[in-house]
Amino acid sequence: MKHFNYLTKDREEKTFYRMPMEFSKDSEKELLALTLGACLYMPGTRPNICADIVNQKHDGLVSMVLCLEDAVSDHEVYQAEMNVIAQLQQLHMQIESGLFLTGELPIIFIRVRNEKQMRNVAEHLGSSIHVLTGFVFPKFTAENGTGYITALRDLNEQYSIRLYGMPILESAEVIYKESRITSLLNIKKLLDEHYDCILNVRMGATDFCGLYGIRRSSDSTIYDISVVRDCIADIVNVFGRSEKEYVVSGPVWEYFYKEERVLKPQLRQTPFTNSLGKEGLSIRKEFLNEYLDGLIQEILLDKNNGLTGKTVIHPTHIKPVHAFSVVSYEEYMDAISILEGIGGESGVLKSQFSNKMNEMKPHYNWAIKIVSKAKIYGVYHEQCSYIDLLTEQEQVHI
Predict the structure, then answer these.
(1) What is the largest CA-CA distance in the chain?
(2) What is the pTM assigned to this prediction?
(3) How far is Cα 127 from Cα 362, in angstroms, rounded to an integer?
């Protein structure tokens, strides 16, 4: 498995200065945590999950969550459980019979309602549990978290497997101002004690908004909702610290069709005209309709605020999330310069692009992240950008 494996070799070589690396659920945890990218959620009642995976129905899909919680109504829980178990058993049989390669297996998680359901699903899966990468823990708190993590460790020991947990921060005590910091610090303490089995920290922006009767429009981003923006800042503050850092993923984008635009588009024209001339303006218009201007803006804001990857609910969101995850040539060369300059005679050097100063110590942690992301998502050629991955035609750069 690797990002952009749907590209032809020729197009891959024209787009990437450094190619994305291959990975699997057994890859080193620190790298695996970065690979999830656009993590596609789907309800556990969905049919043909196994067939969609084997047939590689969705270009770019590398990670997915089969949801048994909010995406499933209470009266459908049993049906959803049995469907997920059956689909994963079929997938395991396809692998065991050699009809599907392990190397093409996406990162698969199950989002459970509680610890009891988690144990029950695992028991019914039996040896098929080996197709999983782990479980998602909804509405995670320090109080219910111990049960989730204990169950996870029990399953790892029982099946001699390495399953990870992904807690979702989405409860009232996390967003309510009077309890937020205490709650986050208690959760952090618990996760630190089990750091080896926690892959990502995720957040439930839809649940946060629901507590206030708020829903963002398709023309805005979650960062325009001030009460949620403040909570995101505190989550990053607590879990994004370099001394013991967690990969914190961006919240879900919940729109997948274009309504009539109300606000002025934010997606800049310049990258399109620079690459494609006048034709780029029409392609930009298609982007605004197909990918949603708001989604792209939110991806960029996620990146600027230290979030990596994003929860998505529609396959059309996968490509834009991944295209903006690729490291630019300028970012990569600056990062390499900083890492090579550590311990040298100078604490600051002018970027080879003559547009900024690279300071060795303050920018060190940033450079480490950039080089790690470059391994997973690759590095664009100097004249390439997200446009080269979001348009079907070959780009000719001048």
Answers:
(1) 67
(2) 0.90
(3) 47
Q: Tell me the pLDDT of the chain (398 aa) as tens digits.
A: 999 999 999 999 999 999 999 999 999 999 999 999 999 999 999 999 999 999 999 999 999 999 999 999 999 999 999 999 999 999 999 999 999 999 999 999 999 999 999 999 999 999 999 999 999 999 999 999 999 999 999 999 999 999 999 999 999 999 999 999 999 999 999 999 999 999 999 999 999 999 999 998 887 899 999 999 999 999 999 999 888 889 999 999 988 765 544 445 566 666 666 666 666 666 666 655 555 778 888 999 999 999 999 999 999 899 999 999 999 999 999 999 999 988 776 788 888 888 888 988 999 999 999 999 999 999 999 999 888 898 754 443 33
Q: What is the DSSP string of 335-387?
A: HHHHHHHTTSS-SEEE-TTSS-EEETTTTHHHHHHHHHHHHHH-EE-TT--TH
Looking at the DSSP bridge assignments, the partners of residue 177 are none
